[in-house]
Amino acid sequence: MTFRIPQKVNMIIEELMQQGYEAYAVGGCVRDMVLGREPEDWDITTSATPQEVKRIFRRTVDTGIQHGTVTVLIDKEHFEVTTYRLDGEYEDNRHPKEVSFTSSLAEDLKRRDFTINAMAFNEKEGFIDLFGGMEDLRRKLVRCVGSAEERFNEDALRILRAVRFSAQLGFSIEEKTLAAVKAKAANLNNISAERIRVELTKLLLSDYPDRLRDLYETGITRVVLPEFDQLMVTEHNNAHHIYSVGEHTLRAVEEAGRQEASGFDVRERTILKWTLLLHDIEKPSCISIGRNGQRHFYGHQEKGALTAKRILRRLKFDNDTIDAVVHLIRWHDHSFELTPAGMRKTMCKVGKEYMPLLFEVCRADASAKHPDYTGEKLGQLEKARGLYQGILNRRECVSLKELNVNGNDLIAIGMKPGRQVGEILAYLLEQVLENPGLNDRDTLLDMARERTA
């Protein structure tokens, strides 16, 4: 099998080598190249110091020069070039106290997290694999370079990354590495919320999001998402469910936004995954027992939405994502009225822009319930989706902004600005939701006059 790296990456490597330095593509891009995956970016490592890299290349940016990283610009593309380095003592499970440069590739690779990320390549020498990364790729293993406990003491984020890589690649975690994950999970308390959020989201968007179970079983969620642990020990004891709340959640997350089911982009899939992860987060606190002994969870939607907002804020999500997830959690248990008027009212309340996401949330949620009921629920959902699509096709009004009159129109026929205008607009929209044929300017103005006569 022949491996080739992009022309511009190869050009940087060759230029460094012609100047008398060593240079290689390194890390995740090499791993992905071996696996036949498209690397997201290409990192280059070299024996040249940052100042020497800057001397060789005309256009550079000092992106992380204190850590040895210079960005080389070729046309409109950016490539990070990092000097071989040694990390000093780590004080906070995240950052080395000092960084020093070395002329040894072996020393540089030794400090990296996992064997599959500690390989280097250039087209002249081929693969440099000092720690068995190729064999671990063949065996589908995530294994730390050297001592797992030392690697996790250096950078506790690697604990979460071990599970994330296993989810993205479908790999197992090597026995000693897994033992160290469990032993060192508490060190994640020293990692910033932003970095935790990034790793959790990558895991959720991976091909194996059910590896969230590994986060629970290793004690990671106890640190980074403690609310989830209660789901795993809460039984539904309800005819519509055959799994615990936690297992139902895992299956719903796995189902949500499947590639073949979606034209959803990455942002939308992120919203879907976090919605399904947190949609039942307050079921454990909302348990009541019916006369037949079955459990009910009244109010978990609204209470769960508030808890989800706190969790997402704690993880430093942007406001748009928080608002979307919270809104969908509030509506995730909605029972669709299977009439055109009922669907128009739902679209009005939920928001037309949220409906595709809500349908997918409901589909994933239903797919993770008792199989005896899933077919019926999915059938109803398809009818609801058909009604929704028909309303879109007919361009029927489902919101005030689509109403063919506005407040200025009502003021122009003599109404006073303020409360009355709002009440009349709400009344007109209510009538149009029942009968979309009324959404005609003259008709609406006549109805407004009659309402105030």
Molecular structure report:
It is a single chain. The chain has a seven-stranded mixed beta sheet with strand order 3-4-5-2-1-8-9. By secondary structure, the protein is of the alpha+beta class. It has 22 helices and 13 strands.
Q: What's the shape?
A: globular
- Beginning-to-end CA distance, first to last residue: 84 Å
Q: What oligomeric state best describes the polypeptide chains here? A: single chain
Rg (CA only):
28 Å
Which tags fit this structure?
alpha+beta; 22 helices; Hypothetical protein af1432; Beta Polymerase, domain 2; 13 strands; 453 residues; Hydrophobic Seed Protein; 11% strand
What's the helix and strand layout?
Layout: H1 7-18, E1 23-26, H2 28-35, E2 43-46, H3 50-56, E3 60-64, E4 69-74, E5 77-83, E6 85-87, E7 99-101, H4 105-110, E8 119-122, E9 126-129, H5 133-139, E10 141-142, H6 148-154, H7 157-169, E11 172-173, H8 175-184, H9 193-204, H10 212-217, H11 221-224, H12 226-232, H13 245-255, H14 266-278, E12 288-289, E13 295-296, H15 300-314, H16 319-331, H17 340-350, H18 355-367, H19 371-394, H20 407-412, H21 419-434, H22 441-452
Parallel strand pairs: 2-5, 10-11
Antiparallel strand pairs: 1-2, 1-8, 3-4, 4-5, 6-7, 8-9, 12-13
Helix pairs in contact: 6-8, 7-9, 12-13, 13-14, 13-18, 14-16, 14-18, 15-16, 17-19, 18-19
